[in-house]
Amino acid sequence: MESLDLHKITVRELNQFLHKELPGKGVKKLEILNPDGVHSIAAGMDTEVDIDIQGHGGYYVGGMNKHANITVHGNVGWGVAENMMSGTVRVKGFASSAAGASGHGGTLIIEGDTSLRCGISMKGIDIVVGGSIGNFSGFMAQAGRMVICGDAGDGLGDSMYEAVFYVRGNIKSLGADAQIEPMTDADYAAVQELLNRAGFKHDPKEFKRVAGAKKLYNWNADANQEY
């Protein structure tokens, strides 16, 4: 296993190594030491490799990830796994705002809580949160799934499209066009699959399904701007 120490190299040098040199070295596992909350660690990955970040990360850890499996042994700042395409990003601690924003694919697993706007503009990513999520999460979520093992704040799923959320705890309020729907056998199976992927032990029957009512898909001239 290769080790890279951010007390000895800069984040720019780290990411340049990950992008330019790593693909030809045949390394399948590496660790990043002393991250100390710096930003953009392992952003733009395009290689199948397991990366362990041994400490806290700043903004955009694992942003635009493709193929890599990244584990953060600590907390992260804004935009973890932002615009992720594939692979896995796991945060062993807590995540700040906009976790998984605009994610197209792959799996984001957060073992603790997240702050505001988790999963905004999701485009196919799967997100599993072991704790609770903050206000306005899932805003304009277009595709993908989110499993929330704790509570959800205000405005969950505001203006959501085809994404589906599963919430185990309390929902403070739903956003425009979001609604609670009956769970089906397919939903229970989906929740179980995502829980297994994350390593969380919950009963899928404890979860509620939240999806869009699709009333915002077309302009309604008679609504008088009230939706």
TrEMBL record:
| SUPFAM superfamilies assigned | Alpha subunit of glutamate synthase, C-terminal domain
A single GO molecular function term of this UniProt record: oxidoreductase activity
Superkingdom of the organism of origin: Bacteria
Instruction: Return the PANTHER family for the record.
Output: TUNGSTEN FORMYLMETHANOFURAN DEHYDROGENASE, SUBUNIT C (FWDC), TUNGSTEN-CONTAINING FORMYLMETHANOFURAN DEHYDROGENASE 2 SUBUNIT C
Record's protein name: Protein glxC
Please name the source species: Novimethylophilus kurashikiensis
